[in-house]
Write a structure and sequence with these properties.
The complex is a heterodimer of chains A (337) and B (539). Helices cover 77% and strands 0% of the residues of chain A. Chain A has 337 residues and is an all-alpha fold. In chain B, the strands form 4 sheets. In chain B, strands 1, 8, 9, 10, 11, 12, 13, 14, 15, 16, 17 and 18 form a 12-stranded mixed beta sheet that branches. Chain B is globular and about 75 Å long. In chain B, β2 and β3 (84-93) form a beta hairpin. Chain B is built from 19 helices and 20 strands. In chain B, α12 (313-322) runs antiparallel to α14, α13 packs antiparallel against α15 (389-404) and α18 runs antiparallel to α19 (484-501). Classes of the chains: A mainly alpha (337), B alpha+beta (539). Chains A and B meet through α2, α3, α7, α9 and α12 of A and α1, α3, β1, α6 and β10 of B.
Chain lengths: 337, 539
């Protein structure tokens, strides 16, 4: 097991180096001149040059790259020019906000999509199968920002059930002391139950938005994979042996249908990280997605590079977790690994 | 709060379980906090708390304005619609108790009880250090200081602990007003020097993250891109103690959500909304919407006069007759702007901005274009800044449609915000739309930056005319020595010339729009167009 993890991590190193090089070159290829942007509307040509020099953009590209790589090796992601803060700190502060939202969204989505997919597979052609089809089609065809805006309009503006879409907490609460960075957990550790409620109620709409978006692939994949497994011979044997339908479906069929679902989950998780960018914009969520977009709009190199790199590391870790999960679910994978 | 009442009544429902009602004790405690707190929502927030910093953005100016003091500030007068409007010509002391203007200098006596946020007294050496800093750090602050002929540290002289003299390099009517803009703010020199380094002698890194002033508010928490929290400075002596104790300024990127927050009564005040929203909010009357013209500001269509076809004055005049002025006012601005066109029969005034003499007249435009030798039109590109796409995009589409009637094929070029200034600096765009507005509200100030042959960044058309330069310089000199007759003649002269040569075609004077709850009072219009919390009150 450990050797497998070690091996996987070794394989990840070249791809990370590739990511560093590509993001560096891509950000430099962006249109726009950060020096002119940050010199302000009234800057003279000399002022722009002064700032370019200060930021080190007057050096040859290769030198800029080595300086950047050297800083990275020392854990320095550089400074964001738009927010004026070190990128590493910003990402550290903002990542939990995005992660909490994405994970909760994924959790809600799984909690709905898997039972829906299983039920649809066991009763193909029934009303629940049609319900599954309709929800997934609707979910996948609505753009996330649209779903988000509609939810805000209905549940906040119209019905008034949901709190104001103003980020992670009501403005009059202060954030709990940081332990995990997840407000739901930190507020419980601090035994501040009101803040917990506030954090939870702030999370519901954005998490639902993400869940609606990610329902479709999970439910469809569960259904398809369950259908295939239910038609296979070992299920027929199990049924013929007189096992109860629940045991057949849950213990035998579902466990075997899990593998493709897990693969889909990892894909969905990465989609969600992307969709997060828009959801964070709609709900004024202080996550890394909105941070990266802001930076991109103002040609602010350092945060964009930091963001892409963080994402790359997260993908590597995610794939690792998925691989390990395969082994847990299917012993054959373990043997080959 | 309606939401809580509703939730209490349905607490048995699933929704109630997920979003439980607050216990009533806490609600009332929070209601008290609410009544003394101003909640502002806007699209963007500051990137730096110090206006002297590198690349401080416009929201950063608002922090500086409220957290730092200047020597002097403007008095208020009643503006359009009875809204308090800064008085361009009347000054009052802020940190200065009293000031005396002589032939070639001005002397300020400081208030002896003024203290910085950390309790240190405000002294003459802080003033000198701060003004030295403004003229030395380079970039925007230094540029702004130079607009009032304030360029050298030697100009700022400490007389004693509480007296400072500012010497004039030359007579300039803009020197005193320039000391009342945001840039010459007074910084706690001892505190900042302690946190400065060899690489950063002015301590810009330190003041970027925290406020070190004597102003009415101080920043207690700042999360870049998310929120700024400011608390009242109880010892402020720059004016009467503000009524708002705490200001929470949240960044909400979605304009629709900002409007929803206002209409639900959760946010107190917001700006940067689409014109259509402002117009609708004005019509339904639930909120107070204030719309005031930008002082000394104009949105215009510029043409690059160094290259054909726009080097031909007839072509430029043809374009000026072809623009769909009224359509832009109605369909793009929803009426929220002052028209700057069609003053055909009105005599030129000694004022700026003022409407030009052109009107939409396609026949005349066609005739002029034929005269210029472009009877069949030509192809060109119109560029705009995507950061202000809400106005610029529909505007450019209307212009495109209109020019098509002359056979001019226009391609629209959308320039990302980050790139816009680079493009302006290159001065290569043939046709473009942009806004310019000057902090100092004087015609010659506007013309000096936008039309003078020294070709500043704002002379986006690369317009050069010896006659124009003579008139602008003449007006500046006349203003400094108080020669009203020459001044009036020169101002009328350069306005007329600008309209005859039309290197840029003024479209309208934009409005600054602010929407607030009915219980918010004390909004004041300032030249910088940001909020002044010091005069505001709630309830």
């Amino acid at each position: 097991m450990l050797t497998m993890i070690g091996k996987r991590l070794m394989f990840a190193i070249p791809s990370l180096i590739g990511v560093v090089i590509v993001t560096f070159l891509l950000t430099r290829a962006l249109p726009g001149d950060p020096a002119a942007y940050f010199a302000g509307p009234a800057a003279t040509k000399e002022a722009v040059e002064q700032i370019r020099k200060k930021l080190g953009f007057d050096k040859p590209l290769i030198e800029q790259f080595f300086r950047y790589a050297n800083d990275l090796a020392h854990g320095d992601f550089g400074n964001s020019l738009t927010t004026g803060q070190p990128v590493a700190t910003e990402i550290r502060n903002r990542l939990p906000a995005s992660a909490e939202l994405t994970l909760l969204g994924l959790f809600v989505s799984i909690a709905i999509a898997i039972p829906l997919g299983v039920l649809a597979a066991t009763r193909p052609g029934s009303w629940i199968d049609h319900l599954c089809r309709v929800t997934t089609t609707a979910g996948v065809s609505l753009p996330v920002f649209f779903t988000g805006l509609v939810l805000v309009y209905v549940f906040y503006f119209w019905l008034g059930w949901s709190p104001a879409p103003l980020g992670r907490l009501d403005v009059f609460y202060s954030a709990p002391p940081t332990v995990t960075g997840f407000y739901l957990i930190d507020t419980l550790i601090a035994r501040d139950f009101e803040a917990f409620r506030s954090a939870l109620s702030q999370l519901i709409l954005p998490a639902t938005t993400l869940a609606i978006f990610s329902l479709a692939p999970i439910a469809r994949m569960t259904r398809a994979s369950m259908l295939a497994v239910l038609a296979s011979e070992f299920v027929r044997t199990a049924r013929a042996s007189g096992l109860s339908p629940a045991t057949v479906i849950v213990t035998y069929a579902f466990r075997n249908a899990m593998l493709p679902v897990i693969t889909t989950l990892s894909m969905v998780f990465s989609f969600l990280l992307g969709a997060n960018v828009l959801v964070e914009k709609v709900f004024a969520w202080p996550g890394i997605g909105s941070y990266a977009v802001e930076a991109l709009i103002s040609s602010d190199f350092a945060p964009v590079q930091g963001f892409v790199l963080t994402m790359a590391v997260m993908y590597v870790l995610l794939n690792l977790v998925i691989d390990i999960l395969y082994g847990v679910i299917d012993p054959r994978v373990r043997l080959e690994g | 709060m309606k939401r809580r009442d509703f939730l209490k009544s349905v607490s048995g429902l699933a929704a109630g379980a997920a979003l439980p009602a607050m216990p009533s004790v806490i609600s009332s405690a929070r209601a008290d906090a609410r009544s003394e707190t101003l909640l502002i929502v806007s699209e963007g927030g500051p990137n730096n708390l110090d206006i002297h910093g590198i690349g401080t953005n416009v929201p950063g100016y608002e922090v500086s304005w409220n957290c730092y003091d200047r020597l002097i500030s403007h008095e208020m007068k009643s503006g359009p619609g009875g809204v308090p409007y800064y008085d361009r010509d009347k000054f009052k002391g802020e940190l200065a108790e009293d000031f005396k203007i002589d032939e070639m200098s001005v002397t300020f006596k400081l208030k002896k009880n003024a203290k910085f946020h950390d309790g240190a007294p405000v002294t003459a050496k802080d003033v000198k250090w701060s003004l030295d800093r403004a003229v030395s750090v380079g970039g925007f602050p230094t540029f702004q200081m130079s607009a009032g002929s304030l360029t050298k540290p030697e100009q700022f002289v400490v007389i004693d602990d509480y007296t400072v003299r500012v010497d004039f390099l030359k007579k300039d009517r803009l020197t005193i007003p320039d000391l009342a803009v945001i840039v010459p703010c007074i910084v706690n020199s001892e505190l900042v020097k302690k946190n400065a380094s060899e690489k950063d002698p002015w301590g810009l890194e330190f003041t970027k993250q925290q406020t070190a002033g004597s102003g009415a508010y101080k920043v207690t928490k700042w999360t870049a891109g998310t929120e700024v929290i400011m608390e009242r400075n109880e010892d402020w002596v720059g004016g009467p103690l503000p009524k708002i104790k705490r200001v929470i300024w949240r960044m909400v990127p979605q304009a629709g959500n900002r409007r929803a927050l206002l209409e639900r009564g959760d946010a107190d005040i917001s700006y940067e909304l689409p014109f259509k929203d402002f117009q609708e909010m004005k019509a339904n009357g639930k909120l107070n919407v204030v719309s005031l013209p930008f002082s000394n500001g104009i949105q215009y269509i510029g043409m690059n006069v160094t290259k054909p076809p726009f080097d031909n004055v007839k072509v430029r005049q043809a374009i000026a007759y072809a623009l769909p002025y009224q359509k832009i006012m109605d369909a793009v601005l929803f009426g929220l702007g002052n028209p700057m066109f069609g003053a055909k029969d009105k005599a030129t005034e000694v004022a700026w901005p003022q409407p030009h003499k052109y009107n939409t007249d396609i026949e005349k435009a066609k005739a002029l274009l034929t005269e210029a030798g472009y009877a069949n039109g030509f192809e060109t590109t119109i560029s705009f800044d995507l950061n202000f796409a809400g106005v610029n995009e529909p505007l450019c589409i209307l212009v495109q449609e209109s020019l098509a009637q002359l056979g001019i094929k226009t391609t629209i070029n959308k320039v990302p915000g980050a790139n816009w200034r680079t493009e302006l600096n290159k001065k290569e765009m043939p046709l473009f739309t942009n806004v310019f507005s000057g902090w100092l509200d004087y015609p010659e100030y506007f013309f000096y930056w936008c039309y003078h042959g020294n070709n500043s960044v704002f002379n986006t058309m690369s317009y050069k005319s010896p006659e124009m330069d003579k008139l602008i310089d003449g007006a500046r000199t006349a203003a400094s020595i108080g020669d009203t007759a020459t001044y009036d003649k020169d101002v009328k002269g350069f306005v007329d010339l600008a309209f005859a040569d039309v290197p840029r075609i003024p479209l309208y004077q934009p409005f600054v729009n602010v929407a607030m709850q009915k219980n918010i009072s004390g909004y004041q219009y300032w030249f910088h167009r940001r909020l002044d919390y010091r005069a505001m009150a709630k309830g």
